[in-house]
Amino acid sequence: MVARIAAELGPWAWWVLGVLLLILEVLMPGVFLVWIGIAAIITGALSLLLWESAWWAWQLQWLIFAALSIVAVLVGRRLVAKNAQKTDEPFLNLRGQSLVGRTATLQEPITEGRGRIRLDDTFWTVQGPDLPVGARVRVVSVTGRDLQVEPV
């Protein structure tokens, strides 16, 4: 079925694939399918120029598409990395990391290495040396969802 559609569309099959990938990028943003879509459109442009050539077989088209996809993804990653903007909120989506260095009072004692503190509006599970309720602790690191603390 796919071979029949590709044969009927001819070189336009690559253009259709490229546009479908670009539409998918809009529906599932992640800036990845756009580069593969561009590779498909470039392969389609080459197919328009070379379609009548005897050596322009589907195998060669797929190899060129694969190579162009790899090149487009690598170039795209470099462009995105170069244009990355510095932010004044480096821990925006890393809430636990933003708590490192803060101090708090234990709400539940640390027994057998685990306890709880309250920072802002959230209770956090902490790991550290055994300490009683009311002890002051400082957050020194984050492991998963747990905060590593030490006494102040």
TrEMBL record:
Segments crossing the lipid bilayer: 33-51, 57-76
GO cellular component, one term: plasma membrane
Keyword list, A-Z: Membrane, Transmembrane, Transmembrane helix
Location relative to the cell: Membrane
Pfam families linked: NfeD
Membrane topology category: Multi-pass membrane protein
All copies of domain NfeD-like C-terminal, residue ranges: 97-151
PANTHER family: INNER MEMBRANE PROTEIN YBBJ
Name of the protein this chain belongs to: NfeD-like C-terminal domain-containing protein
The species this protein was found in: Rhizobium subbaraonis
Lineage of origin: Bacteria, Pseudomonadati, Pseudomonadota, Alphaproteobacteria, Hyphomicrobiales
